[in-house]
Task: inverse folding
DNA sequence: ATTTGGTGTTGTG
DNA sequence: CACAACACCAAAT
């Protein structure tokens, strides 16, 4: 970890507002450990006892909090993340993206998604107009660890993750580095409602779309827009996205752009897999990517 | 199983 | 302007 960035004095308020979902976010640490174990050993279908012991938890407690988090048991989760299953996410039919464009973001019979309206800001715009841009930020609990929410008055601009408070500084530095000219201020009052809404599917409403601001190059923004068309609990490959945005050969360029997505989860870069169904990479850790995919499977099965 | 060669975009000098 | 780096991919060892 580089220490050139001295981002001291991150105030940690005592009263972190908790999200209203049925998930107790404090348990994510145990859940994350369990998922890490599962990720390592899913090939040999580990038992609940083994998962719990290797994760340093009691089986009964793990069963309970995991179920509250995902709606399914750790054992079912093991089945949900096998390679075969990941391949199934990639479309049975033509292409998830093709059908998404035909049907629209959310059609009948398809799960609702986090409705989003976006406006793009090119780096040029940002430099010119964003000279006085103020970004409010705050850490909030989420089903995937502590979430760093960053917002402007024009909408949500950044979403990052940290496993525990010791990672806050790094996460914040990672994000502020992307828009060096902006002015940052901690403001939980502004970011709290966004955090609550983003991670609670029951609050996703078509009538009140979530406003987001995409700050990136032309190409990057086009890639991120395409990601928004991948339906909930489904997945697409890098080359499918490349075909849509540019040329099928551009898969690698797409990978680079996907990796720079500043709005993880909201812009669902976790739904992009390699051509063989393997999870290729994730800026905030492959474990978290698996957690998000598994969580979506569980939520959509309900 | 691993290696290789072809790719588009971006950041750096 | 050139060049390396990249969350890729298919084909050839």
Result:
């Amino acid at each position: 970890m580089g220490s050139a960035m001295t981002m001291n004095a991150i105030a940690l308020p005592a009263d972190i507002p908790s999200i209203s979902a049925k998930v107790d976010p404090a348990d994510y640490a145990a859940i994350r450990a369990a998922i890490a174990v599962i990720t390592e050993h899913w090939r040999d279908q580990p038992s609940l006892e083994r998962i719990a012991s290797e994760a340093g938890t009691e089986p009964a407690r793990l069963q309970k909090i995991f179920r509250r988090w995902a709606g399914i048991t750790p054992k079912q989760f093991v089945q949900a993340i096998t390679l075969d299953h990941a391949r199934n996410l990639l479309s049975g039919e033509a292409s998830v993206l093709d059908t998404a464009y035909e049907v629209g973001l959310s059609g009948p019979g398809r799960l609702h998604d986090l409705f989003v309206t976006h406006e793009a800001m090119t780096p040029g715009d940002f430099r010119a107009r964003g000279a006085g841009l103020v970004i409010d930020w705050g850490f909030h609990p989420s089903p995937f660890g502590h979430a760093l929410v960053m917002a402007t008055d024009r909408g949500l601009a950044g979403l990052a993750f940290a496993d525990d408070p010791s990672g806050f500084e790094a996460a914040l530095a990672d994000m502020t580095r992307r828009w060096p000219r902006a002015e940052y201020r901690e403001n939980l009052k502004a970011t709290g409602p966004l955090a609550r809404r983003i991670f609670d599917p029951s609050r996703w409403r078509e009538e009140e779309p979530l406003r987001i601001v995409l700050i990136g190059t032309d190409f990057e923004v086009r890639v991120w827009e395409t990601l928004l068309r991948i339906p909930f609990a489904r997945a697409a490959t890098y080359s499918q996205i490349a075909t849509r945005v540019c040329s099928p050969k551009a898969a690698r360029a797409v990978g680079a752009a996907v990796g720079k997505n500043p709005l993880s989860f909201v812009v669902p870069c976790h739904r992009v897999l390699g051509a063989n169904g393997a999870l290729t990479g994730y800026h905030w850790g492959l474990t978290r990517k698996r957690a998000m995919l598994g969580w979506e499977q569980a939520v959509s099965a309900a």
Q: What stands out?
A: Residues 122 and 216 of chain A are 5 Å apart (CA to CA). Confidence is low (pLDDT under 50) at residues 1-22, 105-111 of chain A. Chain A has 13 helices and eight strands. Residues 217, 219-220, 242, 246-254, 256-257, 260 of chain A lie near DNA strand B (CB under 10 Å from a C1').
